[in-house]
Amino acid sequence: DPMRLGVAYGVIMPWMNVGIHPGEHFMPQSFQAAGYQTALVGKWHLGHALQAYHPNARGFEHFYGHLHTEVGYFPPFANQGGKDFQRNGVSIEKDGYETFLLADEVSRYIRERDSSRPFFVYMPFIAPHTPLDAPQALQDKYADLPDERQRARSKHTDQSRQLARLSGQPSARPLYAAVVDAMDQAIGQVLDTLDQEGIAEETIVLFFSDNGGAAYATGGADNVPLRGGKGETWEGGIRVVALLRWPARLQGGAQMEQIMTVMDVFPTLAAAADVAMGNDSFELDGRNLWPAIAEDRAAPRDDLVFFASETPIRGSFMFTAFNDHWKLVQEVEQGLLAASVTNYLFRISEDPNERNNLAHAHPEVVERLAEEIHHWRMLYPVAGTRNELVPPPGWRAPKDWAGYPRALEETQDVAAPGMPPAFALPALDWQHGEAGRLIYDCEPYRVLGGGLCR
Question: Do residues 72 and 78 touch, judged by C-beta distance below 8 A?
Answer without folding.
Answer: yes
